[in-house]
Amino acid sequence: MPSGGAKATIRAVAERSGVSTTTVSRVIQDSSFGSTSTRRRVLKTAAELGWVPNGAARGLASRKAGIVGLLFPDLGQSGAAEEQSPLYVDEVIRGAEKVATLAGEAVLIAAVRAAPRRALAYSVAGKVDGLVIMARSLSDKDIAAIARSVPVVLLAAKPGRRSLDHVAVDNRAGARELVAHLIEAHGYRDLVFVSGPAGSPDSAERFAGFCEALGAAGLPQPALPAAEGGFTQEGGAKAMRLLLNQGQRARAVVFGNDEMAIGALGVLREADLRVPRDIAVTGFDDIAIARHVSPPLTTVHQPMRELGEQAVQLLFSRLREPASSRRAVLLSTHLVVRESCGCGGKGEPYAGRRER
Amino acid sequence: MPSGGAKATIRAVAERSGVSTTTVSRVIQDSSFGSTSTRRRVLKTAAELGWVPNGAARGLASRKAGIVGLLFPDLGQSGAAEEQSPLYVDEVIRGAEKVATLAGEAVLIAAVRAAPRRALAYSVAGKVDGLVIMARSLSDKDIAAIARSVPVVLLAAKPGRRSLDHVAVDNRAGARELVAHLIEAHGYRDLVFVSGPAGSPDSAERFAGFCEALGAAGLPQPALPAAEGGFTQEGGAKAMRLLLNQGQRARAVVFGNDEMAIGALGVLREADLRVPRDIAVTGFDDIAIARHVSPPLTTVHQPMRELGEQAVQLLFSRLREPASSRRAVLLSTHLVVRESCGCGGKGEPYAGRRER
DNA sequence: TTGTACGCGTTATCAC
DNA sequence: GTGATAACGCGTACAA
After folding, report:
1. From the C1' of D6, which residue's alpha carbon is nearest?
2. Which among A127, A145, A289 is the nearest to B55, CB-wise?
3. For labelling, which of A121, B148, B236, B283 has a CA lying 20 to 30 Å from the CA of A328?
4. How far apart are CA A356 and CA B10, in angstroms?
5. What pLDDT is stored for residue B115 in this prediction?
6. Measured between CA atoms, how close is B285 to chain A, in angstroms?
């Protein structure tokens, strides 16, 4: 709290140090401005008065907020699952934060929750120089509306011809590589896929990659995933039970993400089925837990942090050159072979890159 | 990008809908203002023009940014360790974000990195209505200076008589409870503590709790931790090797956090020592991975998300009543008994609460 | 090198 | 229910 009462302003600092507000303004912006004595005097009074330049006034005058925004979907609603893992979103936030902070901008984050959905988004849009919007947080219509007033970069949205910059991960290629490994290195021919929530573009792309790999190997491609697990541990467990009860005896179950696979591992243990001996299991994302479960999970590493970094970088380029043509960045994944696929303790079937 | 060129302003909307700016301003703020026809007309033109109210102008006029800030220390510098885990900070951020967003405020986050340390902090301070500052991100002096211009809540700082609101976790009691369990339920009498980084208040408090429990049981209290592990997996592994090489044969090693304990688990496996049969190991924090390692880690659950929630809540109270007396919130931890302490698969020594 | 004066886009106050 | 007008605190031509 301010000591006296009213907060200090640039004018107070100026008067108290016997210079004009212009001088004060310049001194604090430009570390090489003015005579040494003036500088010192100004800086000193500013400190004495506890003056912190008002960001709103600055932003208004300079037409630059010095803030980039990040909008993401509310993950809490899927249930208690959010407690569990080092979420995707956290990593993205950290990546974004890093790039932004190093460039001297702060990051404004907000989950778009059900209630004041649009209101919040618009409010955020008004406060930032640019906005990164994660898939599934806003309707296309709202995104378009917002994009009229502030530069927007889309994150992990469904690939398609949009008019906005966007950055995503090559989910399809990642799934293809993973499945090809299961088929070629292990000789599995009976594979099923467990998807994430209904509308997830990530899940859809991974399933597409799954199918492509089967096709490339001359195996029949399913029209639909064998089950849906909502990207949660709980959902993965449920899906696994369903498959087991249906008498499905797939040799390998390819889960749309790690959390579902981890949930399934528990179910299989209880059912006295050994992984990978009886049934192989794989995930996707390579979350921190993946290497610690038993058996360690074979999965596809997704550069989540880099996703956030690139998104903000893209935003900065756009801010720099507003007129440049739209850009799309596709980040690549890589296969992380551990043991749940059937690769044993030491250098078994798979000859390629293994985790160091 | 704006379609025409210049962004729409409230004035443009006002003129185009034949009303004053005052009316436009009220219509968008107050969902029950004006005649229905006026409302509709204004809202319609606003949408057509793609007008998004300028946050800076709003903030300047209303003396309220609608933003709360969160400053945290840069964790990247400790090395690659940051990649590994569902960090503490992430949870705090999520908690803060949730409470703030539900109250209609956005959250501005920034890691305080080495370089423009203070500059960034001050810049953030100017942009927000209030600030949550995590321990070890800023010097006491800078904190004091910033607190003169904007309400500040300290997070997890060392308990002591400061003049600022603050929220923390009762690390000491948590450690005490954990160690008492090791002594009473398992009969261990030869325990050592591995600390975090040098200046960490969390680590210091946990060590204090460790000592108190030993004292209460009539066991000798060490003056210093047996080793230091920097709160990282790597560091924990190193510390464990050190203890082993020194010929230390403690019956139980109490690590200052989970990550170090997890690092140690690997070392013990390589050394052919069985946990908990040969040596018991415990952590602190209850990060997501803790339940998945083998053996599952006995640890102390720390309500990290709640920490963030409470901090923002405290900030809001302060904003509401600037003159109220300073408040301190101490959140309690709870013991999470799994297997690394010696409690077996099913209801062994420990009769109290177990993980459900 | 330093100062004057205006404008940034919105809200609050007061009048009608 | 609606409008005119004065702040809000700072940056920055432009002038000196």
Report:
1. B61
2. A127
3. A121
4. 58
5. 59
6. 13
The pTM for the full model equals 0.87
Are residues A281 and A210 part of one domain?
yes
CA-CA distance, A216 to B34, in Å (whole number)?
Answer: 64
Instruction: Enumerate residues 6+ apart whose C-beta is below 8 A from B103.
Output: B312, B316
Beta carbons of B339 and B296 less than 8 angstroms apart: yes
Counted residue by residue, chain B has a size of 356
Question: Which residues on chain A are in Cβ contact (under 8 Å) with B6?
Answer: none
Boundary-marking domain end, from A62, A86, A111: A62
A54 touches strand D (CB under 7 A): yes
Q: Which residue is nearest to nucleotide C6 (CA to C1')?
A: A61
Where residue A82 falls among pLDDT bands split at 50, 70, 90?
very low
3-class secondary structure, B70: strand
Reading the block at residue A27, the tokens are: 């001194």
| Best of B52, B83, B150 to mutate (most A CBs within 10 Å, chain A) | B52
pLDDT digits (tens, 9 = 90+) for B304-350: 899 999 999 999 999 999 889 999 999 999 999 999 999 976 434 44
> Which residues have a Cβ under 8 Å from the Cβ of B311 and sit 6 or more positions away?
B92, B95, B96, B132, B153, B155, B167
In A, minimum Cα distance to B151 occurs at A1
Token pair 């109220």 is at which residue? B324
CB contact under 8 A, B120 and A111: no
CATH number for the domain spanning A91: value is 3.40.50.2300
The answer to whether residue B4 scores a pLDDT higher than 80 is no
pLDDT above 60: residue A58: yes
Which of A8, A86, A102 is the closest to B85 by Cβ? A86
C1’ D2 / CA B106, Å: 32
- Say what the pLDDT of residue B41 is: 92
